[in-house]
Amino acid sequence: MTSNNLFCATDDYTESVISEVLQSNLLVKEFNQKYSELMLLETSAYLDKMTLYNIPIVFHIVYYDDVENISDAQIISQIDSLNKDFRNLNLDNVIFDEYPREKALATDAKIKFSLATTDPNGNTTNGITRTRTMIESFECPAGRSDMEPLERQPMKSTYLGGKDAWDTRKYLNVWICNLSGASGYAQYPRSLEYMTDLRYRTDGIVVNYRCVGSEGTTEPTRNKGKTVTHEVGHWLGTYHLWGAGADGTGCRSGSGDLIPDTVPQKGPQVGIPSGYSSTKQCPGCPKPLLLNFMDQWDDEYSLMFTKGQVARMRCWLELLRSSIIT
Ligand SMILES: [Zn+2]
Fold first, then answer.
1. What is the pLDDT of residue 278?
2. In the chain, is it the N or the C terminus that has fewer CB atoms within a 10 Å radius of its CB?
3. Is 3 domain-assigned?
């Protein structure tokens, strides 16, 4: 089996959306209020207070070679792992035995994902579409703006050789294709005043067919479905642990990922953690957090969201993506 060295390209697709969000004072006020309410609760009260949300999800497989036309079973393995990750069901993993700090922080997001059962026309569906394309591989948009035209991301357009999104206000759209040089990328949530027609059409996540689920075409080190968990984390408004910019300004800016219970770090942590001896520690800061979904560990070592990340995702889901909750 070959192994790949693929990482997230979200920072190349979109810079931080903080500046836009900050222009919307009302939204920030609402967000801060919800966020601090959640963060002040003890963990047990916190979990009790949260309703379980369901999000319908559709996978658009856009394939050139037959091998890229991955099986339903591979998609099911992805859904299973995504739901496990968002419900904090990795705690029995023995890797946590070495990392009690991370285990104590791991939190259930109380969000689940279900394959769509009805398509936009009201027809029954299994939540998977399959489209043959003439495009051999797809480039990641690198303009650092999610106003990239569809021409730069044709997997999202039927006319251009991909597949049109299903109404992104009702479905989480996941495009699976032969993505060149990256594991995937996501589009951040936006306040409604910034949602253009293009942003509605491109909303969702794109994933390399080598990084989906835990069987079939997956390759180490992206063979446990964590790419989709990570990208959905972005889609719900969480940033990389090292900050929202591609250059990792987490420590210097003092804001990093804007989450109080993660630790600023100098850049992505990759591969396999070896004790608390990260080279990404910022001077004067505690040791960086390990095993987090919003870092870039090998899939096997990507195991948890913190309470702060969960609070952030749920706040943005309620404020900016509420129409998708069923
Ligand atoms: Zn990422």
1. 79
2. N
3. no
